[in-house]
Amino acid sequence: MTVRTKLHFIKNLLQRGYTGKLEFDHTQCTLIPKVKTDQDVVSESVGRNPTDSQADKGSAYQRKDTRSLSGGEKSFTTICLLLSLWETMNCPVRALDEFDVFMDAANRKIAMSMMVASARTQRDTQFILITPQDMSVKPDADITILRLQPPRRSAAAA
Fold this sequence. Notes:
The chain is of the alpha+beta class. It is built from 5 helices and 4 strands. The protein has helices at residues 2-14, 38-45, 54-58, 71-88, 105-121; strands at residues 19-25, 30-36, 93-97, 126-130.
């Protein structure tokens, strides 16, 4: 399960041009995601000597843990992790609430696309995604979107 989760995490990050890895420590019961965003990859490639060793390239993961990511990058990384775990486990219902609150439009669109693609490959699983944001996904035979009306505000509250 660990290996499959790691592989799915890497594949999911690539959807946004990120690279990364999951560090599992089964004795300490910890899981630490390490991520390089597309900006990190561009920054590191500028001025890099093409003869740099592979070991030097891998050491950059040490400086980019989740504490140094922006809110949107953290949210996207979380979606990548959840999708990776979901790919390796069976569960009849999967639900997320306000998963995209801190994402920018680009991350939101890619994350929604990834979740819909994942849901379509898992026909026996129901996905419930709750968001206050605009949906970039259109209704389809296998997608139902329920939109709530905005709350009514009384004149006294304004």
